[in-house]
Amino acid sequence: MERELALEFVRVTEAAALATGRLMGRGDKIAADNAAVEAMRMAFDTVYIDGVVVIGEGEMDEAPMLYIGEKVGAGTPPLVDVAVDPLEGTNLVAKGLPNALSVLAVAPRNCILHAPDMYMDKIAVGPRAVGCINLDATVEENIKRVAAALKKKVEDVVAIILDRPRHEYIINELRRLGARVKLISDGDVSAAIATAVDWTGVDILFGIGGAPEGVLAAAALKCLGGEIQGRLVPEDERERTRIISMGLENPEQLLLMKDLIKGDDVIFAASGITDGDFLQGVRYAGDRATTHSVVMRSMTGTERFIKATHRLDIKPHYVARGCSGGLNPRDRG
Ligand code: VTB
What we know:
The chain is α+β, with helices and mostly antiparallel strands. It folds into two domains: 5-110 and 266-318, Fructose-1,6-Bisphosphatase, subunit A, domain 1 (Fructose-1,6-Bisphosphatase, Chain A, domain 1, 2-Layer Sandwich); 119-260, D-Maltodextrin-Binding Protein, domain 2 (3-Layer(aba) Sandwich). The chain has helices at 5-21, 29-44, 90-95, 139-149, 168-177, 188-194, 211-224, 237-245, 257-260; strands at 50-55, 71-72, 79-88, 101-108, 119-125, 158-162, 180-184, 204-210, 227-233, 267-272, 283-285, 288-297, 303-311. Strands 1, 2, 3, 4, 10, 11, 12 and 13 form an eight-stranded mixed sheet that branches. Strands 7-6-8-5-9 form a five-stranded mixed sheet, sandwiched between helices. Helix 5 links the parallel strand 6 (158-162) and strand 7 (180-184). The longest helix has 17 residues, at 5-21. The radius of gyration is 19 Å and the shape is globular. The protein starts with a helix and ends in a 22-residue tail after the last strand. 7-O-phosphono-alpha-L-galacto-hept-2-ulopyranose (VTB) binds next to helix 6 and strand 8.
């Protein structure tokens, strides 16, 4: 994929962040999600790709926009797979809590795992601990290996994990071992990325979260040189059948980086919605708004952080809820 596309993808996550950021703290996660989805969907129309959504808002009959199988982009080459989460952390925006992001990943066609909307068990680390983790090893083994790779004591290692009853065992183990633990209420894409961004102070992610979020995190970690391993966690027979129908012969397969994102060409973009560990949230002031985003390419490993000031008087569709005002004609390319 041409590197110029990277900037186009940031415009898409920016549009979603700008639309949903307005709804921070309103207690309405559905409205926040709708605003992000609508804005992202419209922004995609201006991007010169022939995209198919492989990770999106749900199946065709469940979601009006950005559903799995939907074509996005202007319809011109390159042929690509598109994974989106217009609002990763709906509760975070609804409550005004940190680390809500708008994210997307794009790779050549058939290179992104078509992960169904179910749970995935995950473990992730940044570049310095690549090769040291194993989803099938114990918490103790993983923490010790990561500590050694980072040249730290176990008690200096910071593990991040969703605060859920299903993780009680892992959290207890981490505490028993003396590691530092960061419990989060939502947003494990941001958490996985944090393991690969030095200044966050986060070293390793554990726990079960959404499978689509796992694939998006894999795209980001591929660009950042980190690692994630995952295993789908079907909750019933229907979900097991769903995994097999999407092409994984063994539903229990350990999914490595190469299974989550095939090949070496993926672009990942994210914009902060609320302030977070590595991105600032959207700020509005009169007729201006600022966004903070990151875009990365696996081909070169370049991480580009982009602060943008948007003129809402010139682009009024950013002021309205979502993009319901329609795209500014100047934006149509
Ligand atoms: C995670 C997290 C999401 O769901 O995937 C989590 O990244 C897992 O699901 O932000 P449960 O809430 O069912 O535990 C979110 O928190 C919300 O989609």
